[in-house]
Amino acid sequence: MGFVILTNSDAQYLFEALGKVLVREITKQSYFDYSPSYFTGFSANTKGDNTKISEWRKKSAAYKSKPEEYKKLEGTYSNKVYGKITIVAKDKFAEVSFEFHPNYKAKLQYTSVNTLLIEYNDPVLGVKEINYNEPNKTIEIRVNDFVDMDPYLFTKCNVSSSEVENV
Q: 84 vs 8, 18, 47, 73, 160, CA distance in Å?
């Protein structure tokens, strides 16, 4: 006997708890409510995430970026899997637009020379600290793990491959 639990996310615990409940049922064990133990873990993770976000925001507020730093980010970037994003410089931040998700925008603010805070207009996507590599003209885009666990590396479109190889 066996069972399969299908889900469109691998960053949540429903299928783990459900699997345990099913195993107990199949083996004729008494019911056990796994919700409280998983909720305790979820609460601790959420508290940790909120602490990290608060620290990133403090770093961003403390970092004295200049408008020309955001001008360096400006342009169109490409990723073979995702497609293109466009970054537009503003006075004290930059804004990201996504080719295949026109309703989403993200705000970029420096936290240090090579790192940026990215905050999406949709809270489901989250707040992350991401890497920017100016010599290679690449930026790493991340969202909350339960949306997509993988980072996407975007390369500025007007940079030739020979320029990247020479860096």
A: 24, 38, 33, 14, 16
pLDDT of residue 159: 53
The span from the CA of 87 to the CA of 72, in Å, is: 10
The whole-angstrom separation of Cα 100 and Cα 111 is: 27
The number of residues in the chain equals 167
Q: What radius of gyration do the chain's Cα atoms show? A: 21
Q: What is the DSSP letter of 8?
A: S
d(CA 89, CA 87): 7
CB 122 within 8 A of CB 107: no
Structure token digits, residue 60: 């961003």
Give the long-range contacts of residues 44-48, CB within 8 A, separation 24 or more: none
- Which residue pairs from 25-28 have beta carbons closer than 8 angstroms and sit at least 24 positions apart in sequence? 26/1
Where do the domains of the chain lie, and which CATH numbers do they carry? 14-60 (no CATH), 65-165 (2.40.128.600)
pLDDT means per 10 residues, the chain with 167 residues, are 77 83 93 92 92 96 92 96 96 95 97 96 96 96 90 85 42
How far is Cα 73 from Cα 157, in angstroms, rounded to an integer?
A: 12
**pTM (two decimals):** 0.80
Q: What is the pLDDT of residue 75?
A: 96
